[in-house]
Amino acid sequence: MTRPRTDLFADGGDTGRLMAELNWADTPLGAVSSWPQSLRAAVRVVLSSRYPMLLLWGDRLSQLYNDAYSALIGDKHPAALGDDVRVTLAEGWDVLAPLIRQAMESGVASWVPALQLLLERAGYREEAYFSVSHAPARDDDGRTVGVLTVCSEVTEQVVGERRLRLLRDLSLGGDGRTVDVDATCARLVDAIGGHPLDVPFAAIYLRDGAVLRRTACTGGDPGHRPVAETLPDVVDVADPSPAAHAWGLPDAAQGRPVDVPGVTDRLPLPAGPWGDPTRTALALPLPSATEDQPLGVLLAGVSPNRELDEAYRSFYQLLTQQVSMAVRNAKEYEQERRRAETLAELDRVKTTFFTNVSHEFRTPLTLMLGPLADALADTAAPLAPPQRERVETAWRNATRLLTLVNSLLTFSSLEAGRAHSDAREVDLPALTVELASVFRAAVERAGLALEVDCPPLPRPVTLDPVNWERIVTNLLSNALKYTFIGRIRIAVDADHDEVRLTVADTGIGISEADLPKLFERFHRVQGGRSRSHEGTGIGLALVHELARLEGGEVRVTSQVGVGTTFTVALPWSTARRAPATTPAPNGRGDVARAAVSEAVGWLTDPAGGVAEPAAAPGPAADELAGARILVADDNSDMRAYLSRLLAGQGWRVRSVTDGRQALDAIRQEPPDLVLTDVMMPVLDGFDLVRRLRADPATQALPVLVLSARAGEEASVVGLSLGADDYLVKPFAAAELIARIRTAIRRARTDPAADDTTAPTGDDAVPAGDEATVPAAGGSRSAVDAPGSTRPAGVMAVAPAPPVAEPTGSAPAVRFAAEPVDAAPANGKPAGGEPANREPAAGAAAAGAAPVGAAPVGAAPVGAAPVGAADDGLGDTLAAEWTYPSVPTSAAAMRRDVRLALTEVDVHADVLEDLLLAASEAMNNAVEHAQRPSRPEVRVRLQVGDDRVRISVRDFGTWRDRRPAMDRGRGALLMNAYGDVRLVSTGEGTTVTIERRLTDPA
């Protein structure tokens, strides 16, 4: 029984329904009733499949397909049903025809995994890809009368993979030589230019201040106007004109992506193999490391053959991120390269500087060493013993300076690549033994054993003997400096591959953290015990560079507390170089002897020596005769010089080599003053001051710090720790003596020092030098607080007699400033002798002598009542001092204020803040007050119930300051540490600093 014809399309879904409704009689296939059984069977297969299938039948290639296929051809359905495929797919027929013809003519099926077709199925010519198979379709007689096509669309897969390749090309396109931003941008657009199906054209704009600059672009062909001539070179981001916004660049530069339509009118650029013009572009921000401002803008064309859907936009987002990352990396690389070039240039400048300075040093050093050596060798007019000792000290230190200059010159030559090895055949063991013997006496004097193991080698070694001497000398000096017990061993041995020098010690060792930095320039191991703190930190670096120059290397092993072993290895291949033919230079062993001469200075008896007062003519006997001075310095020549200088003043001097020995000596016999260097081994000068001030027994002990570290910061550190004075090397002997005298005298007038170093007998302070002032129902002694002695060159504070209290006011205190010896910059004492001070003190007590009656630093200051505060501050305390207008007065002021506030409940942090701010005000008064009517600075202290105020007044006119200087470092410090007011008149300037007594924190 035959089934109705409509049953043929019954299971075909929507397409089957349309096929059933179609009048097939009007098509080349004819009425359905006339279809052969083979066609019917093929139609049933197509309609029943859920996979896209197309049946082409007959000479006209009429189309029959299913629902799945109808989705592939878009708006060509349903008109395609029964129509000729050559009409329906005319835009892609040139691609399809060979495949269909092959299936029909050969009867062999074909398959193409990604067939590219240009389809007009959505209102534009769309780039599409299909996985397609064409198989022959046969009629009832077995003849091929059609083609059965099975296909699926793979457009998203193909396009997605292609876009990923572009992103990969962007990330892998660098060849390692692209080190600047412009070259990176050019590389990026070249990579983008290789993918015109996805990005028809592109331009990279980078932000340059307020503008965008085009750095690279791609797109166009010889038959059209290139992109570079159409797009703007520079766009002002703030320009509101339509021309500036034509491509959406300003908005994108603010972080907003912009779709740019109408590209065809401005840039008739064909895209892809089909020549369709680009209609749309995107202006996309290039993300930067910070979100507030993009790095630049990527302007990119959109393919006219692909829909700008979410996937396409996501691709562009990834593209901008990739471009941005590459540009950022290039910028960072460029910045790093510039930094490296700057550092290299600084290094070259430094090396050149060292070279020039070292050469410039040689002439004056020659003129120093020559006459000194002549004087020492002169038998016709021999030097007297004291003079010979001085000349020998000068000669030793000039030689040490020459050694340092030579080391710097050698090191700068090595770094600049100008150094060379004057290689000669050397009996290396014999040379090493000779150099070690120079050190033997010094090593044994240090209580160490020197072991030398240098057996003969089978043949000479070719190297520069001067370089070898420097290597051996530096390693032995280093071992001696850091070894206190045990031995130092030096050995030379060899095997088939290399010659080795080994220097081993049983010293303090080196931590693992310091080993990698050991051969770096100027690196010094911190905190380790050593015989001296002196040194530049280039010794081991020089060893490393010299070993490399000789073709070898330096190795080191170390264990803290056990010792260190250095090994210099020279391969035999480099040790067999052709020797030089020029004569060998003179001076063999000079480097070693100079190093030993310096090392001997480290080995002075650690117990220290005591220099008795010199019998040579000196200053007239005074009240300071027999004063005890403790000198702490790790340089033996400096200790000897200071001991001779101070003993010549009639003082008893004891010297030690470091801060720990100084503490021991102070406990054994408290001195009148400690004179300490800053940089010392074991315990340095700053730590010594800190420990002395932390101990109640030594808080008031005067300490004068000597240092080669010049500058305000270094002196501030020392004074802030409690040092009484800070003197920078080199110094004048007269200045040092004046400052020591002043510090001792001030300490002896300070009753707070009685508990520690109270003088007796002739050293006692006259009774008239102290007084008490009634205050708040009691008496107050105007003395320094424990541990706060005053530096030289300032006005000492002594209390005035009781003064009348103003009617109706609360009691107040006024302190008068008593002058002592001052040491101005020229090194001459400005103060009067003690014999002249008692009448002055009496005049001060009577209030009869005005400040201006005599030079500041010698004239007394009259005492006058200080009334109670009338501005609401309160009347707990009021005090006033007058100081000479010299830089050292700030230190005296700090100590006087600290003393006056001893019995007031001032928070410690507030006190320190006030002292720092007041110091800045005092320094400003000294520095900026021009042509003062009185060469002095007055300081007034007031304390109320909850606030404290310090006023600093000068008597000059401040020099004009540029507006940019109005908020300098001093002003910032004062404002940071208190409420500051400044009042300036023709008679002077007053700076007032006020704080609460308690810390609000």
From TrEMBL:
Every Response regulatory domain range: 628-744
Comp. bias intervals (Low complexity): 754-767, 831-841
One Pfam family cited in the UniProt record for this chain: HisKA
Protein name: histidine kinase
Residue stretches in coiled coil: 316-343
Matching InterPro entries: CheY-like_superfamily, GAF, GAF-like_dom_sf, HATPase_C_sf, HATPase_dom, His_kinase_dom, HisK_dim/P_dom, HisK_dim/P_sf
Post-translational modification 4-aspartylphosphate, affected residues: 677
UniProt-listed Gene3D superfamilies: 1.10.287.130, 3.30.450.40, 3.40.50.2300, Histidine kinase-like ATPase, C-terminal domain, PAS domain
Keywords: Coiled coil, Kinase, Phosphoprotein, Transferase, Two-component regulatory system
EC number(s) reported in the record: 2.7.13.3
Domain of life, per lineage: Bacteria
Reaction equation(s) it catalyzes: ATP + protein L-histidine = ADP + protein N-phospho-L-histidine
Residue ranges, annotated region (Disordered): 748-794, 822-841
GO molecular function, one term: phosphorelay sensor kinase activity
Annotated Histidine kinase domain residues: 356-574
PANTHER family: HYBRID SIGNAL TRANSDUCTION HISTIDINE KINASE C (PTHR43547:SF2), TWO-COMPONENT HISTIDINE KINASE (PTHR43547)
Protein's cellular compartments: Cell membrane
One cellular component (GO) term of this entry: plasma membrane
Lineage: Bacteria, Bacillati, Actinomycetota, Actinomycetes, Micromonosporales
